[in-house]
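G., the chain you wanted modeled:
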Amino acid sequence: MVSFAQLRSAEPASFDNLASKWSRLAGELSSTDSDLASAARSLANWSGEAADTARSHIGDVRGGYSTAAEYIEKIPPALRTLSDAVSEAQKTVNNVVETVESSGRLQVQTDGTVRAIPGGPGDTRTDEEKQAASDLAEELTGKISGALSTVNEADRTAVSALDKATPQSAGLELEATGEGNVVAPADIPRDASAAKVKEWWDELSPTEQESAIYTHGDVIGGLDGIPAEDRDRANRIRFTEEYTQCSERRDELENLGPSEYSPEARELDEIDRTLRGLDAVHERLEREPTATRPEAYLLDFSTEGNGRGVVATGNPDTADNVVTSVPGTGSNLSRIGGELDKADALLDQAAQTDRGSSNAAVTWVGYDAPQDLGAATKADYAEDAAGDLRSFQEGLRATHEGEASNNTLIGHSYGSTVVGHSAQDGHLDVDNAVFIGSPGVGADHVSELDLPDDADVYAGTAENDIIRSTLPFIHDNQPVNEDFGAEVFDAGEGTDSWYGYSTEAHSEYWDENSTPLRNLGRIVVGESPS
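Predicted structure as C-alpha cells:
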C-alpha cells in the first residue's frame, strides 16, 4: 500500500525512464527475431538432417525472442499509466498542502490527514469560523484520501499487469536460450589471450553465443578474440541504449536553459561532444556499402572520459588486407569522424592499387590519447595503450577466416609512439608497421621492435611537417632518420610556411592523389612504397 509519505517522495519520471528502457529492449528482441529470420533464409539451399535440425533450432529460438518481445511490450504502458496516476495524485496533494500552509490554521499529519489547529486563549475566531476550519480540514483530508486511493488502485493495476508479463507467464523461463545454455559472467575468459578467447567462443553452441551477446554484450563487444560480426552485434545493442540516453539528457539540459559557466552548461557541452562522435559512428554503421567502402562493424566504444571508438570499415575477419590506423594527439570519440574519413581514403587508394583484393580499414581510437602538445611529450599514454593495441592485433589474427591476411598497422603522430611502445613491451603481430609524421617511437633502432622476422617497418614524414622539429630526448630517434633502420618512403613536401615547417603538413598524408596516400595504399595491399 502506497503511504502519504511515499506518494510525496515518488518520482514519476523514473517510471517513464523504465518504460523507455523496456520499450528499447522489446525493439531489440524484435530486431533479433528479424536477424534470425534472415539467417534462416540463407539456409534455403541446404538440405539434409543437419539442415532440418538447424532450421528447427532457429525457429525455436525465434519463437522465444518473438514471445519475449510481445510480453515485454506490455510493460511500458503499465509503467506509464502508473506514472500518470502518481503525477495527478501529487498535484492534488501539493494543492492541499499549499491550501493548508496559506491558511495558518490547519496542519497536515504524517498519515495525510488534515486537522484544524485548536485555538488558544488568544483565539478571537467565532464558532462559525472555527467550524469552517474543521470542515475545510475534513474536505482536504478527503482529497488526500481520494488521491491515495487512486494511486493505490493504479499501483495494484500495474502490479497485476507486470505479473502477466513475467517470463513464467509467457512460458519462457530459460526457454529463449534453453536451460544449461546460459553463459554466466564467470564463464567469460576476460583475461585470456585472444587465441584462447576464440577457442572458448567456438566451443559455445549458437544458443550460448546468443546468450553471451545479449546478456553480457558490454564484455563480449570489447573482447579480443570474438569475431567481428559478433562484437558488432553486441556493441550495437549497447550503442543504441547509450545514444538514446545521451540524447534524452541533452534535451533535458537544453530545456533547462542553463546559464553560461554553470555545471549544467558544462555537462551540456560534454554531451554535445559525445554525441558528435556517436553521430559519426552511427552514420558510418548505417551507410550503404559500396565497392570500395564496405559495411562497417563496431568493434568497441566508450563514452567515458574522452571517449573511445574502434570501427572497422569492412570485415577484418574475411578481408585479404587489414589496416589499423592509430591517431595521435587530440584524438578522442568526438573527433572520430575525421579518422573515419581517413579510413575511406585508405580504402579508396588500396582499391585503386589492387582492384582484385578485399580490404578492411580499422579506425582504432582505442586509447586515452594526450589532448595537447604538453601531454604529448610524455610516454605514459603510449605505455598505457601498448597492451590493448597488441591484444587487438592478436585478436585480428585469431578471428581471421581462411588464409592469413596482410595486416598493416599505421601510427600517425603520437599514434606512432603508441605503435612503437606496443612493439617493445611484447610481440606485435603485424606484417607491416608504418610510422608516419612520427615524433619518435620510444626506440633508437628498428632492432628494438619485437615484430615477426619477416615484418617490414616503414617510415615517412613530409619535408615541411612541423613534427620534424621534435627534439630527440622526447621520444627518442625519429624513424625517418637513416640510423633508425626503417625503410623510408616519400611522404611528399607538405604545405610550407614562412619558416619552412607547418602544422598543415602534419595532416595532409591522406589528401586525395597525394604521394603519401599512394604509398600508404601500396603498403596496405602488400606492395612496396616509392
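Confidence is low (pLDDT under 50) at residues 174-178.

Shout if anything looks off.
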